[in-house]
Automatic annotation (TrEMBL):
InterPro entries: Acyl_CoA_acyltransferase (IPR016181), GNAT_dom (IPR000182), YpeA/RimI_acetyltransf (IPR050680). It comes from the Bacteria. This is N-acetyltransferase domain-containing protein. Keywords: Acyltransferase, Transferase. PROSITE patterns: GNAT. It comes from Polymorphospora rubra. Residues 161-307 form the N-acetyltransferase domain.
Length: 309
């Protein structure tokens, strides 16, 4: 295959079912390294882009009727992701996708560099990034995994707190919980329109802990890959007024018991490598680090020069 065999187009909401099925097939063929979990597809497209035009920032690469690549551009302003079909890894097609994503993201940001991340064991992607002039600058995430065959304890909550699934009517409270957890600026209307009513999201899969005064104190969004029998959490957070009470852990225990009942065999969760509190929480729930991801960046003034290499 040459670059001329590829067709690129903007993503549409209606593409998500076929895209996630394709993604699950890639994972079944090649493993999760370099792909993560199918739940990362809608999470990165909708929650990370926060209502920005996905048709312009998310691109599908196709050959014939098959999806062979996905690029999510402009995450957090100046970061991008590229996922490529296993049979094309390391070749001209993947290099073309990386160049295009770097250039698209450079055109969307005022920052001085574009960023991407890569699994520590993904030597194929690392070689291509370095060939394009990207330089490793940090360890980004720890990617953790837990065997759902191991016992999951009962969720324990302080008096007056309850655990339940989210509802569309919770949008304001869910936005507030995210803002107090991560320092974001969601509104209820934006969270409802950009995430809750988009394909892939199921309010029944967002597990929340409700406080005695009716606020959402903690949340854990669950993603399910039935083909590979793997669950995933993204994101997990606790409102700052309710931290250090074990609430996020209770939500995750509740969810893991449900996942095991579905017949899933493993569950994954990632966290910033510098987030000690998250590391301790997930370790206490039986998660163990399987991979790290590395952050790579390249100055924007080198992006267009690299296209001619």
């Amino acid at each position: 295959m040459t670059a001329n065999d590829l067709r690129i187009r903007g993503y549409r909401d209606a593409d998500l079912p076929r895209l996630t099925d394709t993604f699950a097939g890639w994972i079944a063929q090649a493993g999760s390294c370099g792909y993560d979990h199918v739940g990362e597809v809608p999470h990165r497209i909708y929650e990370n882009l926060r209502g920005r035009p996905v048709g312009e920032l998310v691109q599908l690469w196709e050959r014939g009727g098959d999806i062979i690549g996905l690029a999510v551009n402009g995450r957090f302003g100046n970061a991008f992701d590229v996922f490529t079909a296993p049979g094309l890894r390391g070749g001209a097609a993947e290099l073309t996708m990386l160049r295009a994503a770097a250039d698209t993201t450079a055109g969307q940001t005022d920052e001085g560099a574009v960023l991407t991340d890569v699994f520590d064991a993904d030597t194929t992607r690392i070689e291509l990034l370095e060939r394009l002039g990207f330089v490793r600058f940090r360890t980004w995430d720890h990617v953790n995994e837990r065997d759902l065959g191991e016992a999951v304890g009962e969720p324990r909550l302080p008096d007056g707190f309850t655990v339940r699934s989210a509802r569309l009517a919770d949008a304001e409270q869910l936005a507030a919980a995210r803002n107090h957890s991560f320092g974001t600026t969601w509104t209820g209307d934006l969270y409802r329109s950009a995430v809750m009513t988009k394909p892939g999201y199921d309010p029944g899969h967002e597990i929340v802990v409700e406080s005695p005064d009716g606020r959402i104190a903690a949340f854990a969004v669950c993603w399910i890959d039935r083909r590979n029998r793997v669950g995933h959490f993204e994101p997990v957070g606790t409102h700052r007024d309710f931290q250090r009470r074990g609430l996020a852990g209770a939500a995750m225990r509740h969810a893991m018991r449900w996942m095991a009942g579905l017949g899933l065999t493993r569950v994954t969760v990632s966290h910033d490598a510098e987030n000690v509190a998250a590391s301790r929480l997930y370790a206490s729930l039986g998660f163990r680090k399987r991979y790290e991801t590395y952050g790579y960046r390249r100055a924007i003034d080198t992006v267009r020069r690299a296209r001619s290499r």
